[in-house]
Structures are given as C-alpha cells and as structure tokens.
Known about the structure:
The chain is mainly β. 5% of the residues lie in helices and 51% in strands. It folds into two domains: 6-19 and 27-149, Immunoglobulin-like (Sandwich), CATH 2.60.40; 152-252, SOR catalytic domain (Immunoglobulin-like), CATH 2.60.40.
Amino acid sequence: MRMRTAAAATVGTLALLSFVTPAAHADSSKGDTVFTSVTFSKTTVNVGVSAAQSLTVTATAKDGSGIKGIYGGKLVSSDSRLIYADSATCTRPTSTTMKCTYTYTLEPDRTDYFDLKNSSAGTWHFNAEAAAYDQDYFTLDTGAPFKVKRYAKLATTQATPEPVTKGGTLTVSGALTRANWDTNVYAGYGSQKVALQFKKSGSSTYSTVKNVTTDSGGKLKTTVTASYSGTWRWKFAGTGTTSGATASGDSVALS
Length: 255
C-alpha cells in the first residue's frame, strides 16, 4: 500500500472538503471560449485490487483573445470523489489556443482519501476551466465523461468428461469474480448472465450456445450435448460498473 506524503495529505484534505460539496452542474461558459477537444488515453479504465492504473487526459481550449490558462484539471468520480493530476504540462500551439496534458493514477489500495471505493465505479468526468485574456471562460463539468470499472475475472473453463462420447452430456463449469475495492479482494459476482460459447475444432470463431446465470457466489454450471469436438469457454459482457471478462477455454474431443 502507498502511504501519504505530506504534500498528498494536503491535497487529500482539499479533496475531502470538495467531496461534501453539492454535485457539479452542467458545463457553463461566457463569450467565445471553448474546449475544442478533450481526449482520454482510455475511454474505460478497469481497475483490479492492487495494481495502479494510469490515465492521460489532453484538453485543448481556444478563445479569440487567447487562453490565459486551463485551471483545476481533475477527475470526478460517480460518488463525487476527486482525483488530482500527478503531473500536467501545457503548451500554446497557436496564439489563441492552449493544450494541456494531465496524468492521473487510479488505485484501489491506498491508505488515504484517494483510495477507490465500490461506490466510485461508473461514469466519471474530467473537470477543468479555460480562462481567456478577455475574461471569457468555459467551465467543463459534465461534458467529458469516461468509465472507471471494477475489474472482472472468469476462472478457466472446466468441461467434463474428457473425452466425451458423441451425443453425450458434457458438464461445463466456471466462476465469475470481480474486484471489491472496499476490501481489496476478488469476490464472487452473483446473479450475472454469462455466455457459454463453443468453437468447433479447426474453426477460429466462437458462437454462444446459451446464457447461464451465476449463483450467489459467482459459480457457473450447466450441461450441454456434445455434438462436435472443440473448445468451450465462458464470456461475460460486463456492466456499467464492471468490466467484461473472457475465460480460458477447455478443449474436448469426442470419443
């Protein structure tokens, strides 16, 4: 776990004060100041239980009088948690524009305010204000969304018996887990539909055979008729707060 430095503690205090303020309003502006582009190195950031994930945001603003500065570049989570940039660099591509690039770190196992919580998963926003020399401005509150999701995993697919007689019954099992940011462990993800897919021997394409719902502990189990030799696997599409996942397949031959 990463301990707080004195500087981080100061920023964390500011973030905590901001955390209890009302939710952000929609974008607002005055005059001809605009953000011409806001780009993300990842439109979705999937975070597990230990490894930190980085995100780079590049914002370009323009005004006829020139941009004095782009201020307050930060990430705002779905539960109003604030993440400030590790670094920021700004350039002036033209006399009327400014381009700033920010780098952020998202971590689930810190010991400070910036520690991710389960409630943080979902739609986040990049917030910043571009201020022009003529007092015009553009405040970006909700116009630059992206996703931060809890990382999901599927255990290696298990199909038995191996080999199986043609027309015989094959039992296929697996397990779906996802990162719990409150406890920093992977826990079973229950009541989720997961696709059981099959690829015939010699083919490169999987097709969905059926959808199976995980039990309360995230376990998967179903039976199918074995008509061809090939590989079976589980595939989870993900949700608004949880990443998708694909299990390693299990090849089964007909006897």
